[in-house]
Design brief:
Layout: H1 4-7, H2 15-36, H3 58-72, H4 89-111
Length: about 120
């Protein structure tokens, strides 16, 4: 798979592609979790956790982060995956988008030549 950092002529964060990647990875992981943890999810609805579980646990978030890293061709800090996970898909997407954009900006800033 080609990565966006290597093939991007500009430093503009590819938000549409990253959000689609996050949502697709969450959907894939949701399907996997339905097999691994029957009774928590159905094909018609997102995962419904037990009252003490987050909707998206930290191990799922790690898989999503790996998908984003592959898409962008950058390594994201290990601190991206919060202990305990997320209570909703939207919270996960919002947080990962913010963190990924910060990492993207840092990497693309380093790759640009100095204007001196």
């Amino acid at each position: 798979m080609d990565t966006l950092v290597k093939n991007s002529p500009s430093a503009v964060f590819p938000s549409t592609e990253v959000e689609a990647c996050i949502r697709n990875a969450l959907a894939d992981q949701g399907a996997d979790q339905a097999l691994l943890r029957p009774g928590l999810a159905s094909t018609a609805t997102p995962m419904v956790p037990r009252s003490w579980e987050p909707e998206i646990d930290s191990l799922v978030v790690v898989e999503v982060i790996c998908a984003v890293e592959e898409l962008l061709g950058i390594t994201l800090p290990a601190t991206f995956s919060p202990k305990g996970g997320y209570d909703s898909v939207d919270a996960c997407v919002k947080d990962l988008m913010s963190e990924t954009q910060a990492a993207w900006n840092s990497v693309t800033k380093e790759k640009q030549p100095n204007d001196q």
